[in-house]
């Protein structure tokens, strides 16, 4: 079987698995967030944190809950790292330096999982399981809660209430993420992923020497790393490491975990707004972009340009022989079109155009299907922009799901789509202009510029993957990427929740003959075009200096 055919068959198997999970998982999540019942363990949590889960919140109160919880999480994770040297189970590792502790705390709380350290050489068991793994759960649940709040903004009328943040946070963690993670961890252990609290030990090598390895609760952290679109690896090699991702089946299973909740949330959206066709339209938009990017990535990496490529069956540099070009390309697109950032191959070793596809996937806003929660609310913001553009074309006040998109709503949406590009481009420009940061680049020229652009694109979009040719463990990069991660995560949430509150206050607008049908293929095409045009106009000059220049020169 040719490598290209094997890649296509794996893609078809992945699509079939996602299709089977779509309806039951989407409907289940809709029931979870619509339920008025509180389970006994959830009541214990509410009592411990002093929250009333039945109290409705307007958007400012909901936002305060998001920010307060996240601020406490940053402080807790920062303190845990700084105290590592005196904690049990630290494996003898010292406390993390202040700038790196800040970067890591910001990274995991922002659902980014950018790592400027070697996991197996820096973090002990307590920090890994009690700090990083916990944030993998709750940061994902925060994103889902904000998405559900926006959906309620569309579904409700004549009220500014969006639900209860604490109830949404706890339910998302306890009823959705935890059960799937338990089952997924068992699957990964069965595939060969390790799950223990072993210390550092030496293993023999065929060369006659020895190498040090440390164990850890890897399978349980690996599953939520993918399921919650987090991405931070227990080991530096991330999902290319055999302890994290042992076999081709585990590789395909991890891709499934990355995509299943973001895609299924479109069904949840359709169910909660009472119109499944609207959910299918959002799903079709996400799937079109995802499939298009996957096909383009496989084409660029399978294209043969010389004897070495022909012998290897594609661009095998930086890719695991266990997975090959096809599975690596599928994983790469899945992880950059979501806010996951996990890698099973070396992104910096992809072809010039392949690296550009990874960059563009993040620059779209990671909405196809995007991160857990963040993908849905990002796509809904773009849906509002597309409706507004359509309204300008026909001279009619735009409407979406029975809500008028007026001046206030479009300002919130515009601010949302401008924040991340501003962070990416400003920080990249500053890093290239100052004398010291460029010294961290492994390569010069277009590829070196791409390393810096990729780092800030990954951080501000809460992705976490890296070209890895960049030495990001410096005070400049730890500090600025940490700031970019926090601002890129929480500033957009401010405008999403403000938009949700504005929509919830409106009374529904009756549908007329002149209303744009947003559940039709025509609108799906308009939405795809809007996303690509907005992203292209924003990032094309930067892409032209980096991956496009490199790809055209090769």
Automatic annotation (TrEMBL):
Membrane topology value: Multi-pass membrane protein
Pfam families: KdpA
Keyword annotations: Cell membrane, Ion transport, Membrane, Potassium, Potassium transport, Transmembrane, Transmembrane helix, Transport
Molecular function via GO: P-type potassium transmembrane transporter activity; potassium ion binding
Major place of residence: membrane
Localization annotation: Cell membrane
Record text on subunit structure and interactions: The system is composed of three essential subunits: KdpA, KdpB and KdpC.
Similarity comment: Belongs to the KdpA family.
HAMAP family: KdpA (MF_00275)
Protein name from the UniProt record: Potassium-transporting ATPase potassium-binding subunit
Organism field: Streptomyces venezuelae
Lineage: Bacteria, Bacillati, Actinomycetota, Actinomycetes, Kitasatosporales
């Amino acid at each position: 079987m040719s490598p290209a055919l094997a890649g296509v068959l794996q893609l078809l198997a992945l699509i079939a698995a996602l299709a089977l999970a779509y309806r039951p998982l989407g409907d289940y999540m809709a029931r979870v967030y619509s339920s008025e019942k509180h389970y006994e363990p959830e009541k214990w949590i509410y009592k411990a944190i002093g929250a009333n889960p039945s109290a409705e919140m307007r958007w400012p109160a909901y936002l305060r809950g998001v920010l307060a919880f996240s601020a406490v999480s940053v402080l807790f994770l920062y303190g845990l790292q700084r105290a590592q040297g005196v904690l049990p189970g630290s494996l003898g590792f010292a406390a993390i330096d202040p700038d790196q502790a800040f970067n890591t705390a910001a990274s995991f709380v922002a659902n980014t999982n950018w790592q400027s350290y070697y996991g197996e050489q820096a973090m002990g068991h307590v920090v890994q399981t009690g700090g990083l793994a916990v944030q993998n759960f709750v940061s994902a649940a925060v994103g889902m809660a904000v998405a559900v709040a926006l959906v309620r903004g569309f579904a409700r009328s004549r009220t500014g209430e969006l639900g209860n943040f604490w109830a949404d946070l706890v339910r998302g963690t306890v009823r959705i993420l935890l059960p799937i993670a338990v089952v997924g961890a068992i699957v990964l252990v069965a595939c060969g992923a390790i799950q223990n609290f072993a210390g550092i030990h030496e293993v023999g090598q065929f060369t006659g020497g020895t190498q040090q390895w440390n164990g850890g609760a890897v399978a349980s952290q690996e599953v939520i790393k993918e399921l919650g679109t987090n991405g931070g690896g227990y080991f530096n090699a991330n999902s290319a490491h055999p302890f994290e991702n042992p076999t081709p089946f585990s590789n395909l299973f991890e891709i499934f975990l990355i995509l299943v909740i973001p895609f299924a949330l479109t069904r949840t959206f359709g169910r909660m707004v009472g119109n499944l066709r609207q959910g299918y339209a959002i799903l079709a938009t996400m799937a079109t972009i995802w499939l298009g990017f996957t096909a383009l990535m496989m084409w660029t990496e399978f294209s043969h340009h010389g004897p070495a490529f022909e012998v290897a069956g594609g661009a095998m540099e930086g890719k695991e022989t266990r997975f090959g070009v096809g599975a690596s390309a599928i994983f790469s697109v899945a992880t950059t079109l979501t806010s996951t950032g996990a890698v099973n191959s070396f992104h910096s070793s992809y072809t010039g155009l392949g690296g550009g596809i990874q960059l563009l996937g993040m620059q779209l806003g990671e909405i196809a299907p995007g991160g857990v929660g963040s993908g849905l609310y990002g796509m809904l913001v773009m849906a509002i922009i597309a409706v507004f553009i359509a309204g300008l074309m026909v001279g009619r006040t735009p409407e979406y799901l029975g809500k008028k998109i007026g001046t206030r709503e479009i300002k919130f949406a515009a601010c949302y789509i401008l924040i991340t590009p501003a962070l990416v481009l400003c920080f990249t420009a500053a890093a290239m202009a100052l004398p010291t940061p460029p010294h961290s680049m492994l390569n010069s020229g277009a590829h070196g510029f791409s390393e810096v652009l990729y780092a800030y694109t990954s951080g501000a979009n809460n992705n976490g993957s890296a070209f890895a040719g960049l030495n990001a463990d410096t005070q400049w990069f730890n500090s600025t990427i940490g700031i970019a991660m926090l601002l890129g995560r929480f500033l957009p949430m401010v405008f999403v929740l403000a938009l949700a509150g504005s929509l919830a206050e409106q009374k529904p607008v009756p549908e007329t003959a002149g209303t744009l049908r947003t559940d039709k293929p025509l609108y799906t095409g308009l939405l795809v075009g809007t996303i690509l045009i907005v992203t292209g106009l924003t990032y094309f000059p930067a892409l032209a200096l980096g991956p496009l220049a490199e790809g055209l020169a090769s």
